[in-house]
Amino acid sequence: MKTLPPPKPSLDLETEGATPLAGNPTAPAEPARGRRRDRLAKRVRSVAPSGIRRFFDLIQTMDDVISLGVGEPDFTTPWHIREAAIYSLERGQTMYTSNLGLIELRRAIAEHLARRYGVIYEPNDEVLVTLGVSEGLDLALRAIVDPGDEVLIPDPGYVSYAPGVTFSGGAVKAVPTRPGTGFRPTPAEFRQQITDRTRAVLLGYPNNPTGAAPDRPVLEEIARVIAENDLLAVSDEIYDRLVYGREHVCFASLPGMRERTILLGGFSKAYAMTGWRIGYAAAPRELLAGLVKIHQYTALCASITSQVAAIEALRSGEGDVLTMRDEYDRRRRVIVKGLNDVGLDCPMPEGAFYAFPSVARLGQTDEEFAERLLLEERVAVVPGSAFGECGRGHVRCCYATSLAQIDEALKRISRYVERHAANSAVR
Ligand code: PLP
Question: How, if at all, do strands 279-282 and 354-355 pair?
Fold first, then answer.
């Protein structure tokens, strides 16, 4: 039987890079005076490889796996969006754009934010087109964090947040969120974590992995904490269009927050455009200028083809967003009911496309559960601890897959739970 490869140890700070010098394989690795032995920078070595990676490596070698693992829509980008991109190529649009991105796209983004959330940005110098929210996060953190600055991040949270802070030279301060409150953040916990070195709060709601989307009053209270302590906010709102039966609260639209927030948005999830690598940042001009400075030297600009596609998405993609959202909503209800029915406590997620059930009652850790479920029943889920300490005891199940696949996955999970519950002392 296959077993999961052991996690690669994070690079040893002392020995990494101490290989014999080329040309003299037996000579001890004596670093030249004043030269360090490590090839990689400390902040890079200090970040462990993604906990999700080894699962995906193993899945590649297995047949008949149902993946609830990857957080990616199962839809293809709607045809009219692809067609706009094809037509743009046919017309020979193959060049760089302005560093900030095509002005038509920046206007469309500003209109979208004004119409939907009432928050006003000047397309000329307050909107930047990025290579996905991923680049936006990296730019935002590097633009505002100095070495040693602390950034508060709700735990659990998206896997890139903490490494992003480390790469920017900052220090992560986790703000715990708990199952009892549906993993919604509590303003008091933010207050407790603030020190003289706190620089910013990094929020990601609706949340990956929990699906939590806090109510307006909770976010308003967090906004007050931010303003009172003169902090900045980075708000990752990539799931703003995937919210079920409630409004999305744009953090920049809260009192006093537009001036303190770097708002990140994208196309990957709402329009099923993960492969196009396109997103945006919106912020007051002095802040945005910092992001632009890094972006112009490191990325130059986003792909013109993707920018043209994004314009089409914003202009004519609303029907597609609603159709896909309704479908995710149906799947959400099916998977959450199914998980609860088999005895895995699972709150109803309010946004994104993840269910986050507890597996604690089986007496297994989340990693053990994910590993054994994959090997025994060929269903891939992600251990909650990959998203932070507070994710322990839970697993993330992405329901951006067909209802037929979800039904089959639930049958397999049910079989697994029955078998292991019988063996565990818990039941
Ligand atoms: N932010 C969150 C919360 C995500 O879940 C993801 C992708 O899974 C990203 C950002 C990355 O988005 P993009 O494809 O726009 O880089």
Answer: unpaired
Residues touching ligand 1 (Cβ under 6 Å) are: 71, 132-134, 158, 204, 208, 236, 238, 266, 268, 274, 279
What is the spatial distance between Cα 351 and Cα 306, in angstroms, rounded to a whole number?
A: 26
Strands 395-398 and 198-204: what pairing? unpaired
Q: Which structural domains are found in the chain, ordered by start?
A: 53-76+319-420 (3.90.1150.10), 79-317 (3.40.640.10)
Residue 251: DSSP 8-state = G
- Ligand 1 atom with least separation from CA of 352: 5
Cβ(54)–Cβ(7) under 8 Å? Answer: yes
User: pTM here?
Assistant: 0.90
Q: 64-77, pLDDT tens digit by residue? A: 999 998 888 999 99
List pLDDT tens digits, range 16-40.
333 333 333 444 455 566 677 788 9
Distance CA 121, CA 365 (A): 46
Q: What confidence tens digit (pLDDT) does each residue in 314-330 have?
A: 999 999 999 999 999 99
Q: Report yes or no: 315 and 171 within 8 Å, Cβ to Cβ.
A: no
